[in-house]
Amino acid sequence: MSDDKQLSPVEHIKLESNYLRGSIAESLADDLTGAIADDDTQLTKFHGFYQQDDRDLRSERKTAKLESHYQFMVRMRLPAGVLTPEQWLAVDDIARRYANNTLRVTTRQTFQFHGIFKQRLKPLIQALDAVDLDTRGGCGDDNRNVVANTNPQRSALHAAVHDWSDRISRHLLWKSRAYDELWLDAPVSSEPDHEPLYGKSYLPRKFKVAIAIPPENDVDLFANDIGLIAITGDDGELAGFNVAIGGGMGMTHGELDTYPRLATVIGFAPLDQTLAVVETLVAIQRDHGDRENRKHARFKYTIDDHGVDWIHDQLDERADLRLDKARDYHFDRNGDPLGWVEGDNGKWHLTLFIENGRIADFDDNGTAHYGQYQGPAGYKLMTGLRELAKIHTGQMRLTCNHNVIIADVAEADKSAIEELVAHYGLDDGSKNSTLRYSAMACVAFPTCGLAMAESERYLPSLISKLDDVMSDAGLSGDAIVVRMTGCPNGCARPFLGEIGFVGKAPGKYNLYLGAAHDGSRLNKLYRENIGEDEILAELTPIIERYAEERDDGESFGDFVVRTGIIAETTEGRFFHDNVGSPEPA
Ligand code: SRM
Ligand code: SF4
């Protein structure tokens, strides 16, 4: 543990917060400002929301000497991204009643609401509570939404894994009574509060757990602090998990001691040990993660600083846990197959494409929320999904690729779903290019306070241009994983893109190449700080060469590494080595 004097400011805020209460109640009651107190902005993350301001309006308001246009983003906790149609309808209603009339599916399988004014936070959280949904641990230095593979073809296994995601999420949830008191009007107790796992200072940084069912890696398992790879026994039932540790994407431009890292598989845990292994790993990070420097505080750095053998020793010493040798597994891809598939339970599942996760109704000019978001003119996506939820009797599921699954549809109900899909022009994988279906962008402007460049609002138009390049090269049907973020924090997992774009400044991106198609290898920096013309000029000859010279079934990421266009990144620690290309293609 760090010396108290050296602790980062956020550590002091947590310690002095009385288990995440701080002065949030007073901040909410203060009608003189749309903001909350500075310290409270750190604490409300644990309750699932961030203070933001509308960056489209920032300079205008500054010139007019007005307070920033403060608003909040609220993130739900939704293990494995599963909700009932009734919950969907409630969430849809909340977005229209309290937020900006849009919903945002996130890369961690949940919803974010944007543009919420301070006074609406409590009614919003109460409306979620009314349908058994919450925002506890949506953000903050604790365990985040536990994501799990949606693999609809293996329905029974999916149900088991969903169960596990829920169990782990509940087990690692912060427990203080602050949430119930602040949002749900629970009586304030005079008994002292406590946090059995986290203690007063919670974790040094955010913590993430994912579960994948091979061969699908749609959760990008290796980007998580803990990744659990589902292993089945001879009977096809879930037998346990291979445990992978130390994944994370975030880094800072120009700071070479920050880097993305993929989780290392350290062994196999049978089901009866899984929860203990997960809890002990969290406790190791709680006690040994860096509490002085938040840029060095993720579990990935704790592991690289101490070594994997030390982790094994810790598991043994703390909880008598000795992992077996990891079992064989194989991943095929990290994207979502779109359209209908039949599950092994005889039910049907329809995966619909949601471009960059933004669910809205777009007007005849192709805009939503006062022109802030763009989409196809007249596309009533939000209404279409609402109408689907009204007639659907199975589950709705969100994917880590920003998509939505209408799950568990009986054969007899398929045609009614299909009619609505056709009526609203929803995208079942038949309307756009494979490249667009394989692309994903983070939120960035106008809400994200950390964005350096556009992402969600820019990638669609860049994809249209790349579509032309792909089509000219005869690759229209090919899937290349493209990821874009507005900064190097990595929210759309750009370092797992076969082609990755990371914002540097307005209109300028770093271009990364060479991640594996199944999410098992990081990419590497190829060109720095380039605009759209240079991006197209750089990528066109590489895509043409890929069309002509690739081996049978070779993915784009593997091709650029094999042909030496980019050096291979073997480990996070070496992410910044050998950047650029030996000779421009
Ligand atoms: Fe993220 C911070 C959005 C997934 C790494 N992320 C943010 C904030 C809250 C900005 C901020 O701190 O002020 C963004 C809010 C934008 C907005 O206006 O909505 C934001 N992150 C998102 C979402 C919505 C992106 C999306 O397009 O879906 C994702 C919400 C996930 C969820 O439901 O919980 C999202 N963020 C991720 C992922 C991907 C993942 O977890 O699989 C990562 C990379 C994996 C990882 O954690 O390393 C990620 N977000 C970050 C980081 C860098 C963390 C680090 O270790 O350095 C930050 C900044 C920070 O924590 O300081 C960040
Ligand atoms: Fe914001 Fe950066 Fe995350 Fe994009 S990657 S949402 S710009 S923090």
Automatic annotation (TrEMBL):
Binding site for [4Fe-4S] cluster: 442, 448, 487, 491
InterPro entries: CysI (IPR011786), NiRdtase/SiRdtase_haem-b_fer (IPR005117), Nit/Sulf_reduc_fer-like_dom_sf (IPR036136), NO2/SO3_Rdtase_4Fe4S_dom (IPR006067), NO2/SO3_Rdtase_4Fe4S_prot (IPR045169), NO2/SO3_Rdtase_4Fe4S_sf (IPR045854), NO2/SO3_Rdtase_FeS/sirohaem_BS (IPR006066)
GO CC list: sulfite reductase complex (NADPH)
Cofactor(s), by name: [4Fe-4S] cluster; siroheme
Pathway it works in: Sulfur metabolism; hydrogen sulfide biosynthesis; hydrogen sulfide from sulfite (NADPH route): step 1/1
Keyword Lipid metabolism belongs to the record: no
GO MF term set: 4 iron, 4 sulfur cluster binding; heme binding; metal ion binding; NADP binding; sulfite reductase (ferredoxin) activity; sulfite reductase (NADPH) activity
Domain spans labelled Nitrite/Sulfite reductase ferredoxin-like: 70-130, 345-421
Binding of siroheme, residues: 491
Reactions catalysed according to its record: hydrogen sulfide + 3 NADP(+) + 3 H2O = sulfite + 3 NADPH + 4 H(+)
Cofactor: binding details: Binds 1 [4Fe-4S] cluster per subunit.
Keyword vocabulary terms for this entry: 4Fe-4S, Amino-acid biosynthesis, Cysteine biosynthesis, Heme, Iron, Iron-sulfur, Metal-binding, NADP, Oxidoreductase
GO biological process: cysteine biosynthetic process; hydrogen sulfide biosynthetic process; sulfate assimilation
Pfam families: NIR_SIR, NIR_SIR_ferr
Residue ranges occupied by any Nitrite/sulphite reductase 4Fe-4S domain in the UniProt entry: 166-320
E.C. number: 1.8.1.2
Family membership: Belongs to the nitrite and sulfite reductase 4Fe-4S domain family.
Subunit: Alpha(8)-beta(8). The alpha component is a flavoprotein, the beta component is a hemoprotein.
Biological function: Component of the sulfite reductase complex that catalyzes the 6-electron reduction of sulfite to sulfide. This is one of several activities required for the biosynthesis of L-cysteine from sulfate.
Protein name: Sulfite reductase [NADPH] hemoprotein beta-component
Organism: Salinisphaera orenii YIM 95161
